[in-house]
Amino acid sequence: MKSYVLGEFGAEAALLDAARTLRARGGATLDLHSPYPLHGAEEALGLRKSTVPLVALVAGITGAVSGYLLQWYTVGYAWPLNVGNRPPHSAPAFIPVTFELGVLFSALAIFVGLLAVYFGFPRVHHPVFEVEAFRSASIDGLWLSAEVEAGDADAVAAELRRLGARLVSVVPEGK
Amino acid sequence: MTTATKTIERVDPLETSPVLVGRPDDRALTDSLLEPVLGPTKKGWLVMLVLFGGGMAFWLLSLYMTLFVGIGVWGNNIPVAWAYDITNFVWWIGIGHAGTLISAILLLFQQKWRTSINRFAEAMTLFAVAMAGAYPVIHLGRPWLFWWLIPYPATTQIWPNFKSALPWDVFAISTYATVSFLFWYLGLIPDLATLRDAARTRAQRVVYGIMSFGWRGSARHWQHWRIGYLLMAGLSTPLVVSVHTIVSFDFAISQLPGWHTTIFPPYFVAGAIFSGFAMVMTLMIPARKVFKFEHVVTARHLDNMAKVILATGLMVTYGYVMEWFIAWYSGSEAEWFAFYNRVVGDYKLVYAMQIFCNVVAPQVFWVPALRRNVMVLFLVSVLVNFGMWAERFVIIAVTLTRDFIPGSWANYTPTWVDWGLLFGSMSTFAVLFLLFLRFLPAIPISEVKELRRELEHQDHHAAGGGQAVARGAHAERA
Q1: What global pTM score does this model have?
Q2: Can you tell me where the transmembrane regions are (chain A) (predicted)?
């Protein structure tokens, strides 16, 4: 059984320090919540480099290759069409669609990938939303959330208070 | 705050006026930017909605006539097979391009002034592309067969001809519409969450909650979000150039005098940015006044946009001059005649309007005082919109009226349905825009908050250590 411990901080520096301290302590999956991207959050949480660029690259290449193959198959092979006496397989004429499909696949992969895979969305219910004050996380609040074993929750909450959190709440996951 | 801002002004002569007036705290910023969405309906907004709703009805009627009576209700003829339909299409697509330029290219160049206007510009792109997309479909004659343009395994075993610019157009426009939408929505998600949390009614909370997919401002999400958003910007940048290039191919790869020219792709792209910035200005000036966005869309933004309009206007002028030069230098009688006909032919007034609006009018922006005068900015931006429409009409319809054989020459006169499709699409665009302003955050809230942090950082350094440090702070962010 897991619990979520939430703490609200008044300043970025205190929030990042608290994240570093709790990470060193171990035993919790930490996350920070803020209304804008926090500088230094990746370092404080020890996050690995994002793999989104790789996804975009692979999807882009897939799109471009399928775009080219589509054109080669349709007008170059299956139904050879003589236009201005150019060869059925005329590469320069295939450039625009190849490019467009590369961009299309890449953009779709970024969007769908981010939402469905990286973020696990749609997920309109999440334990952090149980705390009414957590609403401020998208307005002006800086929050830290720690997913911990239920037995450890009180210790982590005390630790958060010691680290300067203004407001600390514990949410059992079953709720 | 005032002392810090003044220091910046002294330190950096380029920072003539601030991109954000004051340093409001996050809650004040959220409240002021969400007021148009969460506050009561404004009377002015309602009046405009009803007014443009009437125009939209005219558009629907014109569409109905086109679809159910047939394309004969238009003024098009042979040789003028393309007239208002394609003119409007190119005009709308061009307008859309400035939105992508502001949101994507200026993001990659780290231009801070783009932050507060990018959402607005992206919405303009989306609606302009929607308006543009309708024309190529309805001009098909039998629009219900538009899906013949999509390569699918048909029983006839016939495929689209990928050596023609028209199927390229299909892919370019549909990709552009899709990518613009995804980019816009990705940027909207954090702000939709803000709306969900600041909502005053349960209905708003539920609707915006669903639309934001459950965004909780997680640092683990922001990390990927930022990279994804930047990558989308990186993809949109070449995309926007490719789209208008492909649109210009519709003309440039044909053999008609006046169309068959290699300058078209760059000249069309410059013209697109030119008209698009003018449209952003036309929409932004009244909107910032009505919705009280003056603290985030400052004189600095308008000044910068005026400079972009001036620069791209000069590029377009260069295109006009080069077209003339090549027409003369080519020694082709037909080519020369096409240009001669633009100036002295039956449509000389449209050409005069094109030159006045696109070449002469933007020159007032050389004077800094006029770049700060809201009335002048608004007037010139409207003129540029007209001028760019005239340019597309001259290129497309006027060129077609005089083809190779004098026996087949014919003039073009628009019918009321043509006018309905033009003015009706403007009204429909306005309706969509009004709905956007009322129901979605028009200024990117999370990005303005981030901008505020960056500026504070800069203020702090400027107050402490002068020029070198202020510049250093900027570089450090990069």
Answers
A1: 0.88
A2: 54-73, 93-119
